[in-house]
Amino acid sequence: MAFSTRMAVAVHAIGFLAFQERRASTSEEIARSVDTHPVAIRRLLARLREAGIVDSHSGPGGGWHLAKPAREITLGAIYRAVEHESLFTLPAQPARADCEVGPRVAQVLKSRFDDAEAVLIDHLDRQSMVDVIVDVATLIGPCPLSFVEGPECDLPPDAARPRSPSGHERPTYRDVAMVTHRVDSDRD
What we know:
Layout: H1 6-18, H2 27-34, H3 38-50, E1 54-57, E2 63-66, H4 75-82, H5 102-125, H6 129-140, H7 173-187
Antiparallel strand pairs: 1-2
Helix pairs in contact: 1-2, 1-3, 1-4, 2-3, 4-5, 6-7
């Protein structure tokens, strides 16, 4: 059984764009990061653009960029933008007409499959790209502060102290994202 990798590639591409410090990126740069062909990336980015997740502009300095802050992009929105087939499918051939079980199993499984996919999408809707980026940034280490956009990032006074063994002078993405998460959670 083969599964689509569109979701994983889309999350990778969006994460790549989030880490670009508001600099537009070409489909070639993104494709190199994902290790795929630029045409495949352009097709995927076109679906994401239709969903309002990314945007592009042409000309000098042109390329792809996020259409909104990473914290407003849910994994569920990405899934709906790039995955057009159901996660679970029934056999293309109908069951034999003389079988008592086959047609009924398909009917029962269809509702179970729909319920399971709804639970998955609900789970994905509760996670933003910031959640993914925080985990990726934790693995990377210290990064520039400008990753989180907007005034709601309320950094504590000691945020500029080194956070890593390397003695980097700025907070990591995780530090910034966690502060933003705490501020957002306090509003709920």
